[in-house]
Amino acid sequence: MQAHKIGFNTAVSIVIANMIGTGVFTSLGFQVLGIESGFAIIMLWVVGGILALCGALTYGEIGAAFPQSGGEYNYLSKLYHPAVGFVSGWVSVTVGFAAPIAAAAVALGHYVNKVYPGVNPILLALSVIASITVIHSINLKAGSLFQRVFTIVKVVCILMFVGFGLFHVPEHSLNLDADKTAWNDIFSKGFAVSLIYVTYAYSGWNAASYISGEMLNPKRNLPKALFIGTLIVMIIYTLLNYVFLYSVPIPELKGVLEVGYLSANKIFGSQVGQFMSLIIALLLISTISAMVLAGPRVMQSMGNDIKGLKFFAISNKNKVPYVAIIFQSVIAVVLVLTSSFESLITYVGFTLNLFTFLTVAGIFILRYKHKQIVTSYKTFLYPVTPLLFLSIILFILINIMIEKPVESLYGFGTVVLGLIVYFLTNKKENKTKIIVES
After folding, report:
1. 372-406: b or e for each residue (b if 16 or more CB lie within 10 Å)?
2. Is the pLDDT of residue 2 over 80?
3. With 0-12 CB in 10 A as exposed, 13-18 as middle and 19+ as buried, what is 153?
4. Tens digits of per-residue pLDDT, 406-436?
5. What are the pLDDT digits (tens) for 109-125?
6. What is the chain's mean pLDDT, rounded?
7. Residue 215: helix, strand or coil by DSSP?
8. Which residues, at least 6 apart from 403, have a Cβ–Cβ distance to it below 8 Å?
9. What does the pLDDT read at residue 1?
10. Three-state DSSP class for 6?
11. For residue 389, what pLDDT is reported?
12. For the chain, how big is the Rg over CA atoms in Å?
């Protein structure tokens, strides 16, 4: 029997579901701590969207050239060195998917707890992770259907939220003037630090690249899925944050995690607002599901390539890498029980941006060292697109190291630990290779 393949619509839904998650419903409260201009905050989300689009356009060409599953693990191994690819895979395994799963589950628990104070948010978070893990460990077809349905529900609910929000008449006024204060905010340290949260909210635009080996016609569908999914999310994010700012005064948003809950209460009143809070919690299930689906494919690719990690490649009769799925969820559970939300986001943002930077830079290596590879897609506006992405990401990384040194050190520590694991895992294979060559 032929294994089920992921179609274009499911690939787009995976991109959308990976992106629309914890960040957009929780990060605005941290952004307004350093920025008070409504125009500057909207520009944050526009800049983040442009950045994600530039990344998606560049990944499209790299993914079309190397259409196997694994994302950065696959790309960096071929463009740089297997060690670089391994460390990126290691980061995906330990941070890239497990940490956002944990953050989304914790946020879900807090949103439900706002409506039902008797519900333990941590226990609920753990239950959701366990349930979705079981679904995706059994059958890819069932998991794909679950993903498409929840993503459609997510987009429809958010558009309804935005629609009602735009017709709401707030008690306060929102200043969106591009005045001197706004431009000072845009070029401030606060804007740079806030970009950390925005890039976290947009993270996931590369999600389809992790499952490209299981896609129908990945050379054609992967670039389209990355671009269309990212563009849809950029529009949704900008509108959603406008509604948040439009419905709730900035001073009330400062430091608040459940931004969507506050906004819903203003727009719909307390009773309907509580119902919308539950809807937002429901939307986060789609995000968790998408990451549980995509992340283990990186581990599976690593298991296929490296003997010491071959247990990650173990699949059931439906070709589902259930061992990798369970392993990733166990890490997510540990993070739910041990980490704070804000430090988790900064740590994830810094570490993942290191490897998206290297991957996008790899487009220049692909063009000059792999000219024999003919792809059906070329990066739009090359080389402006990758250069714009690289300059903004470098700006963000430098500011994270300055403003958040502890989280940055954890990020570098994760990379170093990955290198140690790589050389220990490959030690036996390297020795064998040397003996054979001798």
Report:
1. eeebebebeeeeebbbbbbebbeebbebbeebbee
2. no
3. middle
4. 888 888 888 898 888 888 877 655 444 433 3
5. 888 888 888 889 899 99
6. 79
7. strand
8. 189, 192, 193
9. 44
10. strand
11. 92
12. 21
Question: In the numeric block, which tokens belong to residue 1?
Answer: 């029997």
What is the rounded distance in angstroms from the CA atom of residue 96 to the CA atom of residue 34?
26
Q: Token pair of 233, please?
A: 């999310």
| Phi then psi dihedrals of residue 6, to 5 deg | -85, 125
Torsion of CA 62, 65, 71, 75, to 10 degrees: -80
Q: What is the DSSP letter of 116?
A: -
Q: Is the pLDDT of residue 212 over 70?
A: no
Q: What is the pLDDT of residue 208?
A: 58
Distance between CA atoms of 290 and 152, rounded to whole angstroms? Answer: 13
Angle formed by the axes of helices 38-65 and 189-202, nearest 10°: 50
Closest CA to 46 of 182, 224, 213: 182
The single residue listed with the structure tokens 């794909």 is 144
- Tell me whether residue 271 is exposed, middle or buried, using C-beta atoms within 10 angstroms of its C-beta: 0 to 12, 13 to 18, 19 or more: exposed
Axis crossing angle, helix 98-115 with helix 322-338, rounded to the nearest 10? 60
CATH number, domain 8-425, options 3.40.50.2300, 1.20.1740.10, 3.30.70.2860, 1.20.1260.10: 1.20.1740.10
Give pLDDT tens digits for 52-80.
889 888 888 887 787 766 678 778 888 89
Reduced to 3 DSSP states, what percent helix, strand and coil does the chain have, rounded to the nearest 5? 80, 0, 20
Give Cα 324 distance to the centre of its chain: 19
Identify which has the larger pLDDT, 154 or 347: 347
CA–CA dist 80, 361 (Å, integer): 10
355, amino acid identity: F
Q: What is the end-to-end Cα distance of the chain in Å, rounded?
A: 45
Quick count: other Cβ atoms within 10 Å of Cβ 64?
A: 22
Confidence check: pLDDT of 266 > 50:
yes
